Amino acid sequence: MSRKPAAGGAASLPESPLMSRSPDYRLCVAPMMDWTDRHCRYFHRILAPDARLYTEMVTAAAVVRGDRDRLLAFDPTEHPLALQLGGSDPEEMAQAASLAEAAGYDEINVNVGCPSDRVQSGRFGACLMATPVVVRDCVAAMAAAVDKPVTVKSRIGIDDVEDFRFLRDFVAAVADGGCRVFIVHARNAILEGLSPKENRDVPPLRYEFVHRLKEEFPELTIVINGGIRSLEEAQRELSLVDGVMIGREAYHNPWILSRAEQAILGGAIPKSREAAVVAMLPYVRRQLGNGVRLHSMTRHMLGIFAGQPGARAWRRHLSENGPRAGAGAEVIEEGLNIIGRRSG
Q1: Catalytic residue among 114, 127, 138, 179
Q2: Domain range for residue 256?
Q3: Is 10 within the bounds of a domain?
Q4: For the segment 208-242, what is each residue's pLDDT rounded down to a tens digit?
């Protein structure tokens, strides 16, 4: 299949061998605003070579009319990688999807789960669950414009609607537009009265809705998200659905990704947490040479030693020294030494 012309500076990116494989959704890392930027994803890729990674949400309007070279930039080693888009205009979503495919993304994911006021004011995110026809039309337009999978990430419902039929009817409508992969955060989204942070904790988890969704739509790929904090929980869910998406636990305790990679996907992983940090150093030095501040990278590495001796000293050292003007990779090496590990 011929590839469409690439957009901007991403045209020369080499393809990863993973790009030619059938999509594997067994282990995914959730898109998280302000967290899963390209530096975070690079570190996660070191920890889990085959997990499916997702960008922070970007709006279709920004991709179409903004600095797309900056917005769509990523390192080739991040594959398999999905771009998460926010929007509700089918034509604009299709344009943005086409640009994302040209930039080399392996999947375009539609955000139908974010409950923030800012997102609602733009008529996208979780509020779109009330208008499944709009999501269907966006998916259909995007699927017609690209060859990569177009997927949807949603909640199980909105506000006080706690009826499985609402979720079932939403999925049925959007599937009519060509979507075959649904990632479902197993909580309602409360559109008024709760902050985005509270929306990640307060509405109760209803995993049974997602399990039932798989039973009613066996032909679809159903990925569960929300509250998965251990390898054991992930493995249990994989007996009921097609994939698990780990969110905050992957950020605050990223070593879980290596454990899940090995147990679920059978991939090769760093031999230790310290080995993962050492593997990050060449990337850090390259980015420092490009003018990236050290803190922009080390902030994503704070949790790598979570639960281990020296974890607090590691976090404190990086938090205090990473933001310093002119801070370099030696801060990371010093941190390894402080907790009794050597980087050499």
Answers
A1: 114
A2: 22-265
A3: no
A4: 999 999 999 999 999 999 999 999 999 999 999 99
